[in-house]
């Protein structure tokens, strides 16, 4: 077995602890993903970190010792860098998506100031299921590379183009590329999402959990759309609304 990191003063161990914070994920352009399922994904990783007591299990099942980029941590140190209550004992480091808005082609989902990691993760999974590949988040939205969101995506985070940009640059890009901009918003001229007529390129905009889509993006949209609510409740959770909306849009796109 390889050498085991046993000291909390180890430089790499200190980096692992820092990666729980967005500042250090951004500085190093890497993030953590935890769980055995990532060994079954065909995704290039930068590093494998395994708990000492779990090494034999993973090596026997997956032959992880063949990887040059393998690090083993003493159990107590691994527990300090794990973000899961019942960890499986293995963590991966991946490079962040460094695409820009100009790399976007085709339909796009825009999340405006979404803050909840669980909502973001659920939306990413839903996007993949409904076959949408492009996600833009307004700057200031939740960091999708935080451990809770990565876990909620069930590896979906690796299957999307993910970009952060300002609302102004998003609108400029969409206008230049002749996108149909559809904001989900209760407005005096809102229409039911069932009545939307799509174009070749469409942008679907969803807003903050409490405040909804910003006035700026609403004013710069081509269509304001709503999902009808039939019961006595004011609104839907944003991840639920996004799922309902995107599946309806996928039905429409398949019939074009």
From TrEMBL:
Signal peptide: none annotated. Belongs to the class IV-like SAM-binding methyltransferase superfamily. RNA methyltransferase TrmH family. Keywords: Methyltransferase, Transferase. It holds the Pfam family SpoU_methylase. This is tRNA/rRNA methyltransferase (SpoU). GO terms for biological process: methylation; RNA processing. GO terms for molecular function: RNA binding; RNA methyltransferase activity. Residues 108-247 form the tRNA/rRNA methyltransferase SpoU type domain.
């Amino acid at each position: 077995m390889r050498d085991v990191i046993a000291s909390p003063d180890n430089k790499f161990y200190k980096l692992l602890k820092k990666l729980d914070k967005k500042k250090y994920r951004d500085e190093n352009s890497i993030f953590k993903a935890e769980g055995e399922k990532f060994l079954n994904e065909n995704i290039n990783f930068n590093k494998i970190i395994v708990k000492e007591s779990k090494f034999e299990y993973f090596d026997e099942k997956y032959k992880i010792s063949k990887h040059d980029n393998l690090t083993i941590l003493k159990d107590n140190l691994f527990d300090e860098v794990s973000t899961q209550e019942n960890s499986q004992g293995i963590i991966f480091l991946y490079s962040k998506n460094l695409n820009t808005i100009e790399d976007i082609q085709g339909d796009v989902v825009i999340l405006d100031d979404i803050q909840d990691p669980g909502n973001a993760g659920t939306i990413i999974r839903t996007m993949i299921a409904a076959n949408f590949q492009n996600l833009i988040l307004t700057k200031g939205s939740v960091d999708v590379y935080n451990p809770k969101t990565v876990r909620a995506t069930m590896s979906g985070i690796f299957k999307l183009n993910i970009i952060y940009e300002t609302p102004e640059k998003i609108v400029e890009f969409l206008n230049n590329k002749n996108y149909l901009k559809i904001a989900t918003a209760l407005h005096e001229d809102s229409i039911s999402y069932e009545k939307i007529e799509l174009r070749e390129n469409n942008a679907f905009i969803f807003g903050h959990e409490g405040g909804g889509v910003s006035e700026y993006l609403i004013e710069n949209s081509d269509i304001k759309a709503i999902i009808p609510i039939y019961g006595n409740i004011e609104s839907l959770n944003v991840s639920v609304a996004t799922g309902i909306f995107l599946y309806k849009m996928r039905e429409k796109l398949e019939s074009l």
